[in-house]
Amino acid sequence: MTTTVTTSLAADIRREHEAAQQAFASAVEHAVRCGELLAEAKAQVRHGEWLPWLAEHFPASPRTAQGYMRLANHPDAQGVAHLGIEGALRHLAAPKGDLLDELQAMLPDLTGQDWTKFLESIDRFGVLVPVVTDHHGRVIDGRQRIRAAKQLGIEYRVDVVRVDPLEAAGICFSLNAYREHRRDSGVTP
Questions:
Q1: Which of 61, 119, 157, 181 could bridge across to 130 with cysteines, CB 3.0–4.6 Å?
Q2: Is 161 helix (H, G, I), strand (E, B) or coil?
Q3: How many Cβ atoms sit within 10 Å of the Cβ of residue 1?
């Protein structure tokens, strides 16, 4: 079943997506600048006076202030601006360059008819299998479910497992290898 989408609707979608990306980038830029200013203020207060000063002058939690200062000190903060402030902080805190990252990079997104069927299933039944992340918020299993749920605007469950990077990669590999085996044998995932 093919649906025709008007050119103006497609342009509106593209424009709103670009505005959302720009808003994420702008939010991170403001967080970085706030972090720079907070670090400057912290350098000016005496030892032991930082938290009281923060409570009086900063309208958010000390943890938020710490996050802003971490973003300000990280050279790749703008590189992850598309994730928003919380996503950028999670990404910057996660271990990098491990096997899970390499595996995730090798897993292609569903496209075409496979994506359409998957999306229709999620729309009809919801996300039946929970997404699995590690304790840093990195997705071990469920990238396509997240993508579909976000596109459809529906909730999904996330199970968090406390595993080391090698265990996370092993889980990711075994689940995706199983799915590929089922797909190759003619069983729809």
A1: 157
A2: strand
A3: 4
Contact criterion met (CB below 8 Å) for 110 and 118: yes
Handedness of CA 104, 82, 80, 60 (dihedral sign): negative
Distance, in Å, from the CA atom of 77 to the CA atom of 91, rounded to the nearest integer, reads: 10
Can you list the residues of the chain whose pLDDT is less than 70? 1-3, 75-82, 91, 94-98, 178-189
> How many residues are listed for the chain in this entry?
189
Task: Report the chain's mean pLDDT, rounded to a whole number.
Answer: 82
Neighbours of 132 (CB within 10 A): 20
Q: What's this model's pTM, rounded to 2 decimal places?
A: 0.47
Q: What is the pLDDT of residue 78?
A: 66
Asked if residues 57 and 115 have their Cβ atoms less than 8 Å apart, the reply is no
